Amino acid sequence: MLEVRNLRAGYGAVDVLESVSLSVPTGACVCLVGANGAGKTTTLSAICGLVPVTSGEILLEGSEIGGLRADNIVRRGVSMVPEGRRVVANMSVEDNLLVGAYTRRDDQIGSDLEAVYRRFGRLRERRLQYAGSMSGGEQQMLAIGRALMARPKLLLLDEPSMGLAPQIVNDIFRTIREINDAGTTVLLVEQNVKKALSIASYGYVLESGRIDFEGKSDALREAPQIVEAYLGAAP
Hints:
A hairpin with a 2-residue loop joins strand 9 (202-207) and strand 10 (210-216). This protein has ten helices and ten strands. It has helices spanning 40-47, 70-76, 93-99, 109-119, 121-125, 136-148, 166-181, 193-199, 217-222, 224-231; strands at residues 2-11, 14-24, 29-33, 53-60, 63-64, 78-81, 154-158, 185-189, 202-207, 210-216. The longest helix has 16 residues, at 166-181. It is globular, with a radius of gyration of 17 Å. It is α/β, with parallel strands linked by helices and 235 residues long. The chain folds into two domains: 2-77 and 152-231, Rossmann fold (3-Layer(aba) Sandwich); 89-149, no CATH class.
């Protein structure tokens, strides 16, 4: 589905990513983890066309998308749930969801809206409420629902657990697993490494703009570097 090869990208004259390569197979859930400032959000933003690419390749189903406008990348089937949710606070829940379908011109938007409401019953209850008046967990549901309204082949999620209570985090990760199980390919950026590895089949560890190491999730959970740095000191 997605191939990122030797990617350099950043802001202005500064490259945050030095040489990032990763692969997300069709139907998989892959996670990208690392410390604050490692370049995780920049990686997702470059894939989405929100950060300029200095060099390297970003291939979606074999076609280069690096350098395309963000709206064209959405049309190609990539949708992102941004860090901090970024719902439009003074718009209703339903209008926020419809914003997610802004690139579409088909006649299935109504049925997809109903599908989001079936998945997130709370959003149906609050559909006429201003998005900014909802709790953080409800806003995260809204951000995910908005991204799904684009009918993505590839769903990118940036720190979906940030600032949420533990039970809400469990609910969000269960939802991500369900979305992946239903056939949507997922690339997950997450500081909660334990949670990320629990639903991803493969993981990459990003350090200072480079992939430090990678592997299957089961192996990463046992790797001394991961245990010490992210899961608590080994006994």
